[in-house]
Amino acid sequence: MMKITLPVIAVNFKTYLESVGEKGLEIAKAAEEVSNDTGICIIVAPQQSDIGLIASKVDIPVFAQHIDPFTPGSHTGYILPEAVAEAGAKGTLINHSEHRLILADIDEAIRRAKEANLKTIVCSNNPEVSASICALSPDFCAYEPPALIGTGISVSTAEPEVVTKAVELMQKVNPAVVPLCGAGISTGEDVAAAIRLKTRGVLLASGVVKAKDPKAVLQEMAESAQKTL
Amino acid sequence: MMKITLPVIAVNFKTYLESVGEKGLEIAKAAEEVSNDTGICIIVAPQQSDIGLIASKVDIPVFAQHIDPFTPGSHTGYILPEAVAEAGAKGTLINHSEHRLILADIDEAIRRAKEANLKTIVCSNNPEVSASICALSPDFCAYEPPALIGTGISVSTAEPEVVTKAVELMQKVNPAVVPLCGAGISTGEDVAAAIRLKTRGVLLASGVVKAKDPKAVLQEMAESAQKTL
Amino acid sequence: MMKITLPVIAVNFKTYLESVGEKGLEIAKAAEEVSNDTGICIIVAPQQSDIGLIASKVDIPVFAQHIDPFTPGSHTGYILPEAVAEAGAKGTLINHSEHRLILADIDEAIRRAKEANLKTIVCSNNPEVSASICALSPDFCAYEPPALIGTGISVSTAEPEVVTKAVELMQKVNPAVVPLCGAGISTGEDVAAAIRLKTRGVLLASGVVKAKDPKAVLQEMAESAQKTL
Amino acid sequence: MMKITLPVIAVNFKTYLESVGEKGLEIAKAAEEVSNDTGICIIVAPQQSDIGLIASKVDIPVFAQHIDPFTPGSHTGYILPEAVAEAGAKGTLINHSEHRLILADIDEAIRRAKEANLKTIVCSNNPEVSASICALSPDFCAYEPPALIGTGISVSTAEPEVVTKAVELMQKVNPAVVPLCGAGISTGEDVAAAIRLKTRGVLLASGVVKAKDPKAVLQEMAESAQKTL
């Protein structure tokens, strides 16, 4: 299912060894099967050098983990939006907590992504920054408290009132931006809680990529999302 | 006049040789005289190592040109909000076009400035980024199109409709933030035009610091601001 | 010819539109033909998302344009040495003039590249920085004066004495590092001049990638290199 | 004693609250007394906004903690070498572990410091990086393993063989550069050990600035240095 529908489960492959090359392809194929089975949209965000490999072999949306705010030209080693699009990416993360950008570059990266037909998930670290990002009109804004990232303690169950505040501030500034949340999401219940808090999905990484059985975790998450709708 | 009143003329000393040490003090003294004479608030933003010297000798608000978003600790070479406050600064520029910050750091720098009793002028490069900044609740937001900075072509006369759009977007997101504009401001008419466009003042640098007679330029600007009110 | 032999012609694809995806593959195939024809080693450095595509279809060394100095883990959007190696890269540029790194990160990136079996071409901007880089024991050090990059005015003909000085300083600090030069290289004579100045090859970009006939330019360069040996 | 003599004890004030403003001046005065008493050169490196205050009141060398590699001009919020020199600084730290620079900027910062008559202490994180820095001809190179900074476990007693290796590599590349070491230095014996390992002094911070009695610690260190010569 290539179309992006809501709610969405976005899986960031980070630079884990568990997601490099063929191993990443396996996780992407598992995501595709779960998505086909449940009808829930699952996005995968592999490493830059794996975008082409994975996008050519699965029929779910592949996102880059980062793009740079540049037009084509002399920018050795940077990530051109047009290049990831041609490799098969349908969108990109921007400003992940582990890859924060200068404000003016977030703005420009969103513009460049639109020009290259890439959807944008821009990450934020607190409710105010979430609102700030929504003023730049990305497609999605994913609120992720840095302290919970990678912990397995889910933002949606540990800090429900902060998620609610983030969603409210985002909606006030720009209701067209789709709110997501992330950090510590590792179970179906974490996903269900996120949806009940009025986000339209989750961004996660280790909870799936480092799981013993990524497919089983995704299946549980997608079914939980289904039931919560 | 130490109190910050509106409209405001903020003079950024940058790292011009013309504003180092005693030369910077002279410009600050000229600003003080003009401010006392006209009743218009003039802020000066000297280099970090001149804050103490200038703040101890003039009775107008002295701002830092930058602070770092850190709490006291192990941050060799960075600018601690408490340190510039103790040296005599009453506020600080943040995210100037020549010193752009990561979004999360702008947010944190504004919080840290408040804790150190520093007022904040956060700079933006276009109307959308201006709105984005206002979501973070600084005291002032100064819209400065980078292409006009240092040119002598004034943003307030060359791009009035963009200034108007910036002010509107800022007010919509957060009406408590005071809108300023800057870039190319070098005459009294540039200041008057800025005020007519509903900004509450200007941020400038070379137009005063590199002028043959900085005091004469400031006098003309302050008088022009007075008449426009 | 997959082995890296000297002299070498390294072609940096940058983020030019002319080198994205299939267009980049065409240039790489032209380089492979010239290399097979002349016996001169030609390295191609495509964009990150094209490494897999190109490495799977040509039998010459493919390099990344950049790697990050990280071990596997939580580094969203960064370039893991192991990932580009698994995609087929045999080496990487580091610290290109358009992508300069913190000194400690250059050191760590070289170590990480070795661990991932990637050869390293580290770029420098003047003779002293070239010597500084050689103390870190990369495989190659490419001296490229930033002012000439992309101009078509060749470093090897415009500044022969600076190239000579750079090579001498490099050899003095670490004779095991192979000296290259770059900037403005666009003809066979530029390559020949570089070799006569005791470099063991060139790093170039627009001279080939933006040429009307990249293969013809590479052919002329490789033949010129052959004759100069 | 304003002249820089060897061995040297350099005290980095970092951005500790214990060293802001008048408190920093007190530490600097203690350092001056100890230096006068023992004849050992003590350098103090206060925060940027305290350079003028401290340099005007003590007769020992005051260093900046950082300069930027810029010439005078439009660089809002950055540290101009000429400005810290005019405020009274005699030198500067560069590339401290907490403020690492791009390699080309270290090179340019050293050049700019020389033009502004500032001595340079450039910091390194391992023996190879120390050698790399020495190729750029700073006045001093201070090897500081990041893992020991701020721990109170002294580099000179915990890792003597690495200090020896660093000094050897530095001397091999450029014997004109004065080797220092730092990290965890907090007692006279730590200083003595550093000198016995053929460094010509130490760089430290919390060991003095956060001590209950900074003067007593400095006195013990200076006497220990004296006896070791």
Helix content of chain A: 40-55%
- Write the H/E string of chain A, N to C: EHEHEHEHEHEHHEHEHH
Name the CATH homologous superfamily of chain A: Aldolase class I
**CATH top-level class of chain A:** Alpha Beta
State the total count of DSSP E strands of chain A. 8
- In the sheet with the most strands of chain A, the strands line up as 2-1-8-7-6-5-4-3
Low-confidence stretches of chain A: none
Oligomer: homotetramer
Largest sheet of chain A: 8 strands, parallel
- Portion in strands of chain A: 15-25%
Q: Pair with the most extensive interface?
A: A-C, 42 and 42 residues
Give the terminus-to-terminus CA distance of chain A: 19 Å
Per CATH, which architecture of chain A?
Answer: Alpha-Beta Barrel
Average pLDDT for all residues of chain A = 96
Query: What is the number of independent domains of chain A?
Result: 1
Summarize the structure.
Chain A is α/β, with parallel strands linked by helices and 229 residues long. The first copy, chain A, contains 10 helices and 8 strands. Chain A is globular and about 45 Å long.
Describe the structure.
4 copies of one chain form a homotetramer. With 229 residues, chain A is of the alpha/beta class. The first copy, chain A, has a single domain (8-228), classed as TIM Barrel (Alpha-Beta Barrel), CATH 3.20.20. Helices cover 41% and strands 15% of the residues of chain A. Chain A contains 10 helices and 8 strands. Chain A has helices spanning 22-38, 51-55, 81-86, 103-115, 127-134, 155-158, 160-173, 188-196, 206-209, 214-228; strands at 8-12, 41-45, 63-64, 91-94, 119-124, 140-143, 178-182, 201-204. An 8-stranded parallel sheet of chain A has the order 2-1-8-7-6-5-4-3. In chain A, strand 7, helix 8 and strand 8 form a beta-alpha-beta unit. In chain A, helix 1 (22-38) runs parallel beside helix 10, helix 5 (127-134) packs parallel to helix 7 and helix 8 (188-196) runs parallel beside helix 10 (214-228). The radius of gyration of chain A is 16 Å and the shape is globular. The mean pLDDT of chain A is 96. Chains in contact: A-B, A-C, B-D, C-D.
